[in-house]
Amino acid sequence: MKLEKKSIYILITYLIVYLLPSFLNSFFKFTHSMIFSVQIIDYLAGALILGFLAFHNMPQNLPEKKSSHTWQIILWGILGFIIVIFLQSLILKVTVQTGGSAASQNTSAILKIIKNYPLFVLPIIIGAPIMEEIVFRKTLFGNLSNLFGFLGPKVSQILTALISSGLFAIAHSDGHIVLYATIGLWFCWLYHHTGKIQTSMIAHILMNSLVVLPFLGL
């Protein structure tokens, strides 16, 4: 019961963090610089709060029955990053060949913001990846696996991987549902393989960093 209760707290907290800037803006009518400052603080604070909820006295879920050494977590995080870039390139290539567009509205909008507000890079490479891995992988994939444990470990983890990856794709919906769902499934596998959510966090942080840091000339 404790696992389910803390999972609910995590999901509610994430929803509050996600909606808070827009809620505050509706009352105070922030300028552009102010709303982005609020978002930076909101996402970084949200990552800290969700991290506390996710790791403080949290019972183990099914993926976390495995144990991995620190070097394995780092190695698979880096390999996971390399493979997710390959998967992205492959899926986008197929998308273009089938008449679709490789452009991402989400990425374009984020880069425009970072161009004017460089500190906005912090929630993109730190806040968002940490929160999304805690919510979509650790909670919706990992913790929900316990709820469907009566189906058997393999079936329950496949089912929750599909659920969490589908929701991950919807949350990033910009015309690339297959791409984001594939990324979600791959990050689920990384978490499942090592039993540590830090593995998919590393891959996710590196993936986002590859997009935005070169834009800043870093």
Automatic annotation (TrEMBL):
Belongs to the UPF0177 family. It comes from Pediococcus parvulus. This is CAAX protease. The chain crosses the membrane at residues 7-28, 34-53, 73-96, 116-135, 177-194. Keywords: Hydrolase, Membrane, Metalloprotease, Protease, Transmembrane, Transmembrane helix. The lineage of its organism: Bacteria, Bacillati, Bacillota, Bacilli, Lactobacillales. Residues 117-209 form the CAAX prenyl protease 2/Lysostaphin resistance protein A-like domain. The keyword Membrane applies. Pfam families: Rce1-like. It comes from the Bacteria. GO terms for biological process: CAAX-box protein maturation; proteolysis. One of its GO terms (molecular function) is endopeptidase activity.
